[in-house]
Amino acid sequence: MLHKIDFYIIKKFLGTFFYAIALIISISIVFDVSENIDDFMSKDVPVRAIVFDYYLNFIPYFANLFSGLFTFIAVIYFTSKLAYDTEIIAILCSGVSFNRLMRPYLIGAAVIALFSYLLGNYVIPPANLKKVEFRNQYIGNSNDKKETNIHRQIEPGLFVYLESYTSNDVGYKFTIEKFVDRQLVSKLTSEYIKWDRENKKWVIHNYYIRDINGNKETIRQGVQMDTTLNMTPDDYLIVDNVVETMTLPRLNASITSLKLRGVNTIEYEIEKHKRRASSFSAFILTIIGVSLASRKVKGGIGFHLGLGLLMSFSYILFMQVTTVFTTSGMLAPWMAMWIPNIVYGTLALYLYHRASR
After folding, report:
1. How much is the pLDDT for 104?
2. Distance between CA atoms of residues 302 and 77, nearest Å
3. Which of 234, 242, 260, 269 could form a disulfide with 333 if both were Cys (CB 3.0 to 4.6 A apart)?
4. Is the pTM for the entire model greater than 0.85?
5. Cα 199–204–208 angle (5° rounding)?
């Protein structure tokens, strides 16, 4: 059961957290406006679009970005205040164990973890997509690029090759190879293919088809042929930070699809595990914060806040370092994203054990 003191701690915890997040978002918006005001004015961007298409989608990203940092700061701040007002001593002297004292903190951490998980996987990706569309429509600084020398498996045993793919939906030097039991049975070679946007199909131009049946080969050729392939022009469009615009179901589907095609999925897997690990970190940072701030020390609340900021930034730095090891192929994506949680989780257990004594 939860008692009055539990609701008091949860209210203080979450109230401090959301107040800090609202404050930092307000500051971030002010700085972003000052940075982009010239572009907004020079492009005559409608105020409604700025507010609803850009800044309304700007808020969830920064709320989640700073959630770990301000979880730690919120715990440190109000727990230090409880300690220096001798409220924690009063609670413990009334017969409440340190383990029992942690219950409302962990409930608050669970609320923040769920908040971060839902934002990261279902709210922020569509919001990021809206921001990209806003910039492409009004600012005109799209960084989209096209792939070259594409070699992919689009279905089991079916491989395609494109020398280049252009922005007018034309792919040059196109080849389809079909394998059965690892034996080549058909190969189509074409000068170019074009995507028919109206009919949602590919048109192959100036093609040759080589059919292989044992020792017998036949060659066919033609000028134009319509076909349906398991690929679209979007598959060959490179968008900067595209994984940040994908919800969790779409991210999982993209990983499966790209693995089938033989495409490197490290960036996608890093994003997937990063979202999970970042959400879980709320529990670890809460335990560390309570363990550090529940006792009076020389230096007061300022010392606790300084130590909290130092540990928060070291955690973020650690996460970036392990990410680099993943992109270089030295660590599996899940391991890189969870190593900081494992290390700081061990530290949390040690500090918790010391504090409970």
Report:
1. 93
2. 9
3. 269
4. no
5. 155
